[in-house]
Each structure stands twice: as C-alpha cells, then as structure tokens.
Amino acid sequence: MSEEPALEPPFSADDRTPARERWWRDPYLIVAVPVGLWAILVALQHAWVSDFLLHLATVNTLARDLWDPIDPMVGAASGSPYYSPYAVLLGLIKAMTGAPARTVLEAAGLANVALLLFAVRRFCRNLGGGPLVAALALVFTLLLWGIDPVAWSGFLGLYSLSWTMSYPSLIATALMLLVWDAFLRHRARPDGLRALATVALLGTLVVLIHPFTAVNMVIGLAAFVLADPRTSLGARPLRLAIGAAVAFLLVMVWPWSDVSTLFGAAGSFDAVHKVLITDIVKDGGFAAYGLALVGLPALVTGGRRPLGRELQILFLLAVAVVALGAATGSYGLARVIPVAMLPLHLALASYLAERARSVPRLVYAAVALIACCVGLYGESGGLIRAYWGDVSPSTLGAWGASPATPSYGRVLKGIHPGEVVITDDRTLARLVNARGAYTVAPAWPYPFVDEAVRQRDTAAFFAGGTDPRDRLAIADRYGVTCALVTRSRAVLRPDALPGFVVKARMSYPRAIRLCR
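and the corresponding structure tokens:
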C-alpha cells in the first residue's frame, strides 16, 4: 500500500488563481511560451520530409475539389480515409486563400502545438498539485523518452514533435486529452450535460482525424471507468449510451470517407510499424523509451494521489495492448506506446509538484533533473531544427536534425497537378504526390486501392524483358503522362517506350523525365 497521503482534490484552489496573478506566477507559462517560440522557429525552417509530403498531397487534392475529391496518391477512387475534418478544413483554407499547401500545413502545425499546450494544462488540473504539475508534465512529456528517441507520428518527444507538428496525430492527441478531461468532469458531476456533449463531439473528431489515436483515447476512457465504475457508469447510464450512439452516428455519416475501411485495413499497416516493436526488443527498449522509467516509482506509489489509480490502470492497459501486438504480430498496436509513456510522465509530475519536502523527494527530484538533461541531449535534434542560422543540409544531417533529401527540382518542374506519373523511386513518387500529381503505385502503404496490382505493373513497366507494347499498354491503362527514371535503364533504350521523349535529366542525383 502506498504511504502517500491524498493531498488535494483534482481541481485545487491554485487553479482558481486570478488571471492577473497567474500571468506573473504560473510556471506553466515559463515552459509553454518557449515551446511555442521553438515551434515557430521550426516552422520557419521549411524543412519537411516523409509523411509531410503525403499531407501536402491531401491538402492539394482537397483544394482542387473539396466536395468530391479523388484519393491523393493514385487518383483512382473517390474519397480517402485521409480526408478527415482536419484535412478538409486545411483544404478549404487553401482553396479560399490561395496560400501554398506547405504554408497552410505549417500554420496548422503551430495551431496544433498551441492546442496541445492548452490540452496538457487543462488535463493536468485533474492531478492536483497546482499549476506546477502542468509545467513539469510538459517538460517530462517532451524530454523523458530515450537517448535515441523515436520520431513517429503520435510520439510527443521534442525531436518527434519537430517533424510531426502538422500531422493529424498531434491535433488528435490534444483532442484526446480534452476528451479525457471532459469525461472526468462528467464523472465528478454526472448531472451536467456539457461535459458529456464535449466527450461525444470531440471523441467523434478524434476517430475521424486519426483512428490510431482513437484507440488510445478509448484505452484512457476504459482506465477511468475501471478506476471508479460506480461513479462512471452508475449515474445516468442512459446518457452515456446516448452520447456513444451520437458519436458513432456522426462518424458513420462523415461524407468524405468511410472510417470503417481504415479499421478494416489496419493489418496492412503492421509491417511499417514493426520497427516500433523492435525498438522495444533492442536493448530492452532503453535507448528509445528508457528515460520514462524514472517515473515508474511515482506511478507505483501514487495510488492515493489525485488520478493516481487511473494512471496506474492506464499504464497497465497500454502495456498489455503493446505486448499483445508484439505477441500476435499486430504491430500497429505499437502506436499505443505514447499512452504507456504518458502515465509515467504525469505521475512523476504529480509527485514532484506536491508541497511536502523530504530527503527522498529531493533525491528523486535530482534524479529526474539528471534524466531531463540526458533527455535534452537525446532530443537535441529537435532543438537544432529550430536553429535560425544558415547551416548546410549536410551539416544538419550530421547533427541528426534534417536528413539529406536529394533535390529533384529539375525533373519535377514539368510535373503539373492532376497528372499521372510512373517512377521507379519511392522518394520521387512522394515528391510527385506533394506537387498534387498522382503515381501509378502508392508511395506509402495504401490498401484502399489495388495496391499489389499497381506495384506489379510498375515493376513490369521498368523491367528489362518487357515488350515495348506492354509498356505502352500499362501507361495507357493508368493514363500516364510522364515517367521518372532513376535506376532502370531498360526504358531508356531506343524504341523501349515509343511516344515518350526525354524532357529533363539530372546527373546528381541521377534522374530522367520522359513525357508523351
């Protein structure tokens, strides 16, 4: 049994400090304002890779046809699971303002960070300890991951956040925290309808924006119910059922996509997520996640602190789900890892924010400070991405801040939005999508079209033994206007691709564009 006393109710008197006094005293501002400035500097670098290009493609396609858009990768079908309310809003902003998709996404990233800062502060009111607990929770959430942290959508380490601030996962995570806060308010005051309506509406948005985060949200709600089932379900259960039914109905009537297809195709994403599980197996996971274990003693002994039992159950549920994914090969469940980390961060913040002082507490605080310093070193790539000086891409790559991405500007210059391109290079395919054009084979895992057939046709197009007439048949089948070649020499031979002529070539990196 824990020896920690129950010190304060979830909503402490410190949280009712007048605004004028809070401006000078609230420690959360001391942390949140620099984080906001850091996000602005990162956005001003305009250095984005990987899935940012997919979100560019999504915004560009929606801006061209907001009401009936085709999918953003291959342009083969109407709608896409990527057309969430978040993406539709950004597409509408681009269509109305004419701003470049990159600018729209960068501004959205700053708004997402601001919403996350608000959501962390709001949820941490449930932990007691006054405003200091939110400040500590934010620091731990950004820094206490590992000495070699994971940069992945939904992971809130500083380095990961520097790449993913514009992604749907971040706004979904912020909304998840607000859903949890609203549910706890409803649990405390079950007669009110406002909190329950907030759970239903924001929960709907989380499901539509980022279904992986929706799984995390449900795990959190389950933990809160299991911690106090009588209060959670005993008072007016009909209202909870109605709220859940409303959320389900809103998800199902969303006109831009069918979210059920994404849940049904979840297994198709297992391969890409396997690395998250191998990070746990490798070195016992310490390099990627070990610093968070500093919060484990606070979590284990914190059952009597505000929300302590809920955090314990949340941690156990999340770890069980990740273990299930590893055991069954359902590696997509590794996206629950951030929810396993969060209780460690929050419990540590809750413990250190208490007013009681003792030698063990001071020693624990010193250990946490050392861990944060180590974490800051591990997350230094995120800090470097905010560097405003003139640094070459190769130097940034050596610092771990920006991978060296080849510039294919010369061969991409003639690619126009809406065209269909076939290429033998995935990086080029992603850059094509980012320009608003389509590729024959998806550049990202995309089981919502005939992906395997398209990959086979692409391989056959560039294969040396393919008859030129078969190449043209493949090009005609998909409406190909250009071919981008980096490795395949077969299509460059005389008469290998009748009707296509070389329009641009580069020697480094090697790339050739042939068009009809």
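(Above: one complete record from the training split.) Residues 1-20 have pLDDT under 50 and may be disordered.
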